[in-house]
Amino acid sequence: MALIPSIFGNRRSSMFDPFSFDVWDPFKDFPFPSSLTSHNSETSAFVNSRIDWKETPEAHVFKADLPGLKKEEVKVEIEDNRVLQISGERKIEKEDKNDTWHLLERSSGKFSRRFRLPENVKMDQVKASMENGVLTVTLPKVEVRKPDVKAIDISG
Fold first, then answer.
1. What pLDDT is recorded for position 106?
2. SS3 of 135, please?
């Protein structure tokens, strides 16, 4: 198992995540441009922010783990009334020339995740909050009206 991370460039992304932009590019070292390397490489550094999406009877709820980020460093947007975008940036710490680094594992850079929303969302009532490094976005659902059913007596 130790060979697998070195083959794939020490990436920790899940290849089963359809929203992940952090994809292994077998052509990245070739001299011609690749479609996978054309996106900004600093975007992939923090792109694996983990997000849960659950649907309750009342709402769709997204929870994103964004440890160390302040709410001012995160943007929540809805595009075209159907796409939720969560994005932000973790800045690199300022280096002091007298410091000696022994280990540097925390990632920095930009991230962006997009989700196509179902049609049963009340777009004008979306709420977002952030507490202890967890962003929660709540999208209330449109109430489904049950059709009026009138029983008809059968004569005869």
1. 75
2. strand
